[in-house]
Design goal:
There is one protein chain. By secondary structure, the protein is of the alpha/beta class. The protein has a single domain, classed as Rossmann fold, CATH 3.40.50.300. The chain contains seven helices and nine strands; from the N terminus they run E-E-E-H-E-H-H-E-E-H-H-E-H-E-H-E. A seven-stranded mixed β-sheet has the order 5-6-4-7-3-8-9, sandwiched between helices. A two-stranded antiparallel ribbon has the order 1-2. The two termini are about 15 Å apart. The N terminus is likely disordered.
């Protein structure tokens, strides 16, 4: 919790694509250990969750580590940055099929050799409605499929939506740690409650102020 994470690169947006512009400054990755699953979360939008998620994932991948980034935010910004052909993907090729249809995680290769991604889809915005009457352990749908493949990656990062929804609870349940971007404010109490009742094994990784 006492380690400051500095983004490893910035993004230059053009009309047609995103270009990753690398910087040479050192990144403090000392709080990360082997086989760690980290959710990047905040209950407020615009706090740097996606920037932090991609920065950590791509920065470690550039160091040669095998990384998986899971985009569980229906805005799908991480997916749009890292998958050039994102607009051609169907919902069955995204995490929608795991959360709503309980299918294996659809993993896609990015343009960074050791970085793979599970993309998101706009229809994930219906998750809270769809899961309201679900009879299974709905908060564990991501964890059940991630447990099958997590041993093949050195680190897994989950880009969460800006709400404490069923998607975020799925991310927390699957995670070892949660990294909250910016001051969490009123996000602390609901996070503590969900951790106490649903995810006692999940620790706070710390706070990140991009």
């Amino acid at each position: 919790m006492n380690c400051l994470l500095t983004p490893a690169f910035s993004f230059c947006h053009t009309r047609r694509s995103f270009k990753i512009c690398w910087k040479t400054h050192k990144v403090a990755f000392s709080i990360l250990t082997d086989r760690m699953i980290v959710s990047i979360a905040s209950q407020k939008g615009g706090t740097g969750k996606t920037t932090t998620s991609i920065s950590l994932a791509a920065g470690l991948a550039r160091k040669g580590e095998k990384i998986l980034l899971i985009d569980i935010d229906s805005q799908a910004n991480s997916s749009k940055v890292l998958i050039p052909h994102y607009q051609t993907l169907t919902k069955e090729q995204t995490i929608y099929t795991t959360i709503l249809d309980r299918q294996p995680l659809p993993i896609h290769q990015t343009h960074i050799q050791t970085l793979q991604i599970v993309p998101s889809h706009i229809l994930l915005s219906n998750t809270d409605v769809e899961l309201t009457n679900a009879m299974d352990h709905r908060e564990e749908r991501l964890k059940r499929e991630l447990d099958k493949i997590k041993h093949t990656y050195e680190h897994i990062f989950i880009d969460c939506p800006p709400a404490l929804s069923w998607l975020t609870l799925n991310a927390f349940t699957a995670s070892d740690n949660v990294l909250v971007t910016v001051s969490p404010g009123y996000f602390i109490k609901p996070l503590q409650r969900s951790r106490s009742f649903l995810i006692p094994r999940c620790n706070w990784q710390g706070y990140c102020l991009p």
